[in-house]
Amino acid sequence: xxxxxxxxxxxxxxxxxxxxxxxxxxxxxxxxxxxxxxxxxxxxxxxxxxxxxxxxxxxxxxxxxxxxxxxxxxxxxxxxxxxxxxxxxxxxxxxxxxxxxxxxxxxxxxxxxxxxxxxxxxxxxxxxxxxxxxxxxxxxxxxxxxxxxxxxxxxxxxxxxxxxxxxxxxxxxxxxxxxxxxxxxxxxxxxxxxxxxxxxxxxxxxxxxxxxxxxxxxxxxxxxxxxxxxxxxxxxxxxxxxxxxxxxxxxxxxxxxxxxxxxxxxxxxxxxxxxxxxxxxxxxxxxxxxxxxxxxxxxxxxxxxxxxxxxxxxxxxxxxxxxxxxxxxxxxxxxxxxxxxxxxxxxxxxxxxxxxxxxxxxxxxxxxxxxxxxxxxxxxxxxxxxxxxxxxxxxxxxxxxxxxxxxxxxxxxxxxxxxxxxxxxxxxxxxxxxxxx
Length: 437
Description:
The protein is of the alpha+beta class and 437 residues long. Helices cover 24% and strands 28% of the residues. It has a domain at 292-411: UbiD C-terminal domain-like (3-Layer(aba) Sandwich).
């Protein structure tokens, strides 16, 4: 278990010491090879100091690629994770503000030259090297701060193209007249990453959610923006009116997203910790899916809890950790399953298919969920199909112009009145296998 408020590098040091991190011995190139290695070890944290283009740079990837690793960092069990994130969203708290002299992220003022950093070129058809683990932090006079993940394609030593579509950051830019001073961090603690991926109302500062997950220290930059004081890197710059092609890029669906005109950010300052660790997040892999999909589970949990006691939510990797979910409920009324379907779609607007199951079903076990569908569902009564719905731009099968899609909900809960049938799942005596062999 890790102490509350542990830093990114603390966690790396701990899992390295515990032998949980694959340490690369062979020098690896940023051009396609590093991503290939990360993919080969997907599900296992990876560390290297042998990147060919940036000798001596410390790089870590697949860091938060399982729920178990995140729970270890936060010092909680798997079943406590989603209720804890939901509670942090509902009960935010102010992080500790520290002086610049006490902020490790400001220790080194580095030259503004992105070519000196271990920024990978991930996939063959990508538009260029990409920041994929960066969280952009912006400030508005009335709305306060906003923290959100944005991929950024490198197009020069001090310029990147930022994918901004339909996020709170877009509203901040509009309110500022089309240009906006921002900062972004790489190598942030997991509580900050999870909070920044949560879907919350405009005007809610994600650092306050992060602080309720685990203690967070922030430092105020000259721009007034507050960033995690213990992050590995902080970049400052301005999102300009200039537009450039952004993409292609592999997204959550493991397919290439299209090329779009997006705004260019000019980077004006780079600071980092001494001997910093670069966080590589492989697009479409488990860490990407966990960090982007799982923070949507608490919003589904909150919505479903308004209509029925919710026992858990799993946005599944097979559904790209974005389009599919399994939701457990403790059924009290005959229509709770149907109501939970509607609530789940309200809790995550990009959700395409959802399965509602009873609390005796393991929502993390596909075979258990399939068993519930096989034994507790009659399709003509328990399947809800919605046509012409607003879907996700990540779904290749949605309408390419409007993102319109069909959605399906499956009520795989057992009826409250059995009518002579037995829907109870048998349980066997619990034994320890090692006692018998």
